[in-house]
Specification:
Structural class: alpha+beta
Low-confidence stretches: none
Oligomer: single chain
Mean pLDDT: 85
Distance between the termini: 65 Å
Radius of gyration: 23 Å
CATH class: Alpha Beta
Strand content: 15-25%
Strand order of the largest sheet: 1-2-3-4-5
Length: 146
């Protein structure tokens, strides 16, 4: 008697590969969107953390725009490789004394992000600017953490 061997048929293998391909087509873009959203949340959190630092460490008489961010407050995420770099922008008539900017690192994963640069000023105004300096049309969704 000949022993019975069991194996996958070519049809079963093709069906399994087709199912895996469909899963990849939907899963990879969803994963990339999730990673981008988490980087944006890190940038917004870093801006709020830096604003608290500036408010706590500058007197009302001092020029808040001359404040410098110490190491750790100057990037997002707080630890590891920077995805966004933070800096204090100079005071003007409309920003309440200072503004903070979170700009994507040029060679980082968010360099071509539609939200571009995050800006938070002393009045609490949240804005975004694209790489060319123009305002982002849907800036509210960039700051949304949901």
């Amino acid at each position: 008697m000949k022993p019975k061997t069991s194996a996958f048929t070519l049809l079963e293998l093709v069906i399994a590969l087709a199912i895996a391909a469909v899963l990849v087509v939907y899963a990879v873009p969803s994963y990339h969107n999730h990673v981008a959203r988490s980087h944006r949340v890190d940038a917004a959190s870093a801006l709020y953390r830096a604003a608290q630092f500036i408010e706590a460490n500058t007197s009302n008489d001092a020029n808040q725009s001359s404040a410098q961010l110490p190491s750790g407050f100057d990037q997002a995420p707080l630890f590891g490789t920077a995805v966004y770099k933070l800096r204090v922008l100079p005071a003007d008539d409309s920003n309440g004394g200072y503004a903070l900017e979170a700009r994507p690192v040029e060679s980082g994963p968010m360099q071509d992000d539609a939200c571009g640069t995050f800006i938070l000023d002393a009045t609490g105004l949240r804005t975004n600017h694209a790489a060319d300096g123009s305002a982002v049309s849907d800036a509210q969704s960039c700051w949304n953490t949901r």
